[in-house]
């Protein structure tokens, strides 16, 4: 099986690709910068150089591919137009081109933020996107539109699309946890963030890629216990602001998801069920 992976140079992709290669999978990475592809070539991957928004380079990268894992996304400080162009337009174009070229399977990497406003309980995969909430904007909106339109390729054409909706990813030296200090200080101390460790993202993507009979299904990829803003400060060794204790969380279920479908369908058990397990293992 040859798998095309986009977004290989990003935080998730650079940790996923080596694990995929270790499993004996033939991997082709789509990278924008040839030099940054060299580390994957050294590990045994094929390297396709191209831009996701360029149909020509996408079609070339798809040649001889059995499955796609679309990890690429534009969301770190990019204009809204770019977020929509990469996360929605280019993702759907990639899925359509893959379908037309006989690619058998397509794993789309999405986010728990697509659920939008909280439901008063953990969000599950059949909950429709409800635009709104404190982090709503071009990123979640464009990812939600991509989920919808890629799943339509399954419903209308039988294409084997699977969606992975990741919580806030951390661990293995990713600065994401430290970066949370830029905004968690403005939260109520009890406000919660759902996390997932990179090792668990990688096992979940592997399960989604290889499981039979889950075409057209979405899966939340999360650990077992959201952490509070207070605990985020604790994990980062930062004193939370005194006023955080008096603040009230406007939506206590915002971004909180259940991982039960991933457990029940695909046998997922998080290697790091909580942030504290990862800390104890020296895996931050
Ligand atoms: N990190 C999280 O906490 C989190 C949470 C939920 C969901 N997710 C999802 O997980 C995925 C990966 O996130 P990440 O944290 O790894 O993001 P990241 O570090 O920002 O990486 C983004 C990747 O996408 C590539 N990319 C962006 N625009 C592109 C384009 N026009 N053409 C080709 N490649 C392009 C980047 O390539 P360059 O290196 O060339 O820029 C990079 O490889 C995304 O789909 C995101 O929505 C992440």
Supply database-style keywords.
alpha/beta; binds NADP nicotinamide-adenine-dinucleotide phosphate; 10 helices; seven-stranded parallel beta sheet; 284 residues; two-stranded parallel ribbon; Rossmann fold; 38% helix
Largest sheet: number of strands, sense, barrel closure: 7 strands, parallel
Instruction: Tell me the domain tally.
Output: 1
Task: Find the CATH superfamily.
Answer: NAD(P)-binding Rossmann-like Domain
Cα distance, first to last residue? 32 Å
Give the number of helices.
10
Helix content range: 25-40%
Under CATH at level 1, the class stands as: Alpha Beta
Bound molecules: NADP nicotinamide-adenine-dinucleotide phosphate
CATH architecture: 3-Layer(aba) Sandwich
Mean pLDDT: 97
CATH topology (level 3) name: Rossmann fold
């Amino acid at each position: 099986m040859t798998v095309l992976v986009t977004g290989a140079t990003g935080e998730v992709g650079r940790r996923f690709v080596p694990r995929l290669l270790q499993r004996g999978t033939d991997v082709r990475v789509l990278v924008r910068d040839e030099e940054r592809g060299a580390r994957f070539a050294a590990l045994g991957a094929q390297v396709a150089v191209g831009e996701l928004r360029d149909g020509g380079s996408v079609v070339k990268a798809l040649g001889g591919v059995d499955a796609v894992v679309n990890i690429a996304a534009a969301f770190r400080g990019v204009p809204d137009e770019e977020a929509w162009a990469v996360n929605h337009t280019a993702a759907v174009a990639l899925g359509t081109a893959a379908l037309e070229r006989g690619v058998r399977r397509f794993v789309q990497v999405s986010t728990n933020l697509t659920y939008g406003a909280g439901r008063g309980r953990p969000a599950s995969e059949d909950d429709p996107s409800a635009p709104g909430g404190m982090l709503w904007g071009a990123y979640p909106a464009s990812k939600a539109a991509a989920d919808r339109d890629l799943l339509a390729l399954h419903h209308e054409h039988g294409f084997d699309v699977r969606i992975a909706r990741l919580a806030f990813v951390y661990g293995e030296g990713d600065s994401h946890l430290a970066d949370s200090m830029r905004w968690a200080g403005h939260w109520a101390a009890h406000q919660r963030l759902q996390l997932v460790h990179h090792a668990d993202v990688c096992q979940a993507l592997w399960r989604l890629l290889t499981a039979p009979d889950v075409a057209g299904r979405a899966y939340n990829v999360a650990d077992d216990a959201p952490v509070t803003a207070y605990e985020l400060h604790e994990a980062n060794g930062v004193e939370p602001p005194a006023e955080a204790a008096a603040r009230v969380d406007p939506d206590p279920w915002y971004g909180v998801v259940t991982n039960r479908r991933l457990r029940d369908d695909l046998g997922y058990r998080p290697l790091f069920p909580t942030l504290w397990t990862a800390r104890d293992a020296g895996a931050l």
